[in-house]
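Action item from last meeting closed. Structure (308 res):
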């Protein structure tokens, strides 16, 4: 499966990868053409008994495909084709899609396929993280600026959108929602921004990992990081710690980190934006976050750092 509009996908890259994959395997190629298409293509592949769905695209295309494969015996394989490729890089794949294809073929030859857990928000599964509040507002601003700009501007666009959102488009001072952990109303965090992580890091800024919850892993339940505010001091300290330039982020008084979370519920005083794996989904007043163990098969690169 290929998303021809993804940032790193070119005609030459598609041809090279197609030849490599078809050398020793029966290959069927399908291109996505609209939002949600990858989910339907993945569901169709699973219904047809396809062993592996390899996805050349960004994190959003991977997320859609994963949602189509949950609960099936068809494995997902990631090939980096987007601007950031968080999930593929977290798995230890090279950022070059042709090099990543070689690593993928090695993993398939070695039958390196694992059943992994996924998170979900209101039934929409996510591979590496879901964001509620600020980062979802940033993603919304990026998507409003158009696909071509995202394709060629990449990380600078996200940085600019983050600053613009912080200044003009989101109340970063007053908590708009509360997060209750595990249905326990005694463990509640007021929040302006919460991220639920299935893997670490949260994202990449260029070549640097931004790690919010080092314990997050495909072999464990979710980690949840909740920010009470995003004042300048909180943002600066959090970025330094996430980039490995400071102490544990959990020591910040305005930031709460909880690992191994099976369930959490969000209640908001007004509609708040949310996103999964970098795709803006919409706004909601109530959100149900759940961890689903053994949800999907995944092709794991050999010696992947994402598996304990």
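Sequence:
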């Amino acid at each position: 499966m290929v998303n021809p509009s993804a940032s790193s996908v070119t005609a030459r890259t598609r041809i090279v990868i197609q030849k490599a994959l078809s050398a020793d395997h029966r290959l069927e190629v399908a291109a996505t053409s609209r939002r949600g298409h990858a989910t339907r293509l993945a569901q169709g592949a699973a219904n047809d008994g396809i062993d592996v769905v390899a996805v050349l695209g960004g994190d959003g295309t991977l997320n859609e495909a994963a949602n189509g494969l949950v609960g099936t015996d068809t494995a997902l394989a990631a090939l980096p084709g987007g601007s950031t490729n968080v999930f593929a890089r977290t798995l230890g794949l090279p950022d070059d899609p042709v090099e990543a294809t070689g690593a993928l073929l090695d993993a398939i030859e070695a039958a390196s396929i694992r059943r992994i857990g996924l998170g979900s928000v209101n039934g929409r599964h996510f591979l590496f993280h879901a964001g509620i509040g600020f980062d979802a507002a940033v993603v919304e601003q990026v998507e409003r600026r158009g696909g071509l700009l995202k394709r060629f501007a990449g990380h600078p666009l996200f940085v600019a959108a983050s600053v613009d959102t912080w200044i003009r488009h989101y109340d970063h001072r007053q908590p708009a929602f509360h997060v209750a952990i595990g249905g326990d109303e005694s463990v509640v965090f007021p929040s302006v921004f919460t991220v639920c992580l299935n893997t670490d890091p949260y994202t990449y800024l260029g070549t640097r990992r931004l790690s919010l919850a080092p314990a997050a892993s495909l072999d464990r339940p979710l980690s949840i990081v909740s920010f009470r505010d995003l004042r300048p001091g909180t943002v600066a300290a959090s970025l330094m710690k996430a980039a490995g330039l400071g102490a544990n982020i959990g020591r910040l008084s305005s930031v709460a980190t909880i690992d191994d979370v099976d369930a959490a519920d969000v209640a908001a005083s007004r509609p708040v934006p949310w996103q999964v794996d970098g795709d803006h989904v919409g706004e909601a007043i109530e959100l149900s976050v759940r961890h689903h163990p053994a949800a999907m098969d995944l092709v794991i690169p050999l010696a992947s750092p994402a598996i304990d």
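Note appended to the action item: The mean pLDDT is 90.
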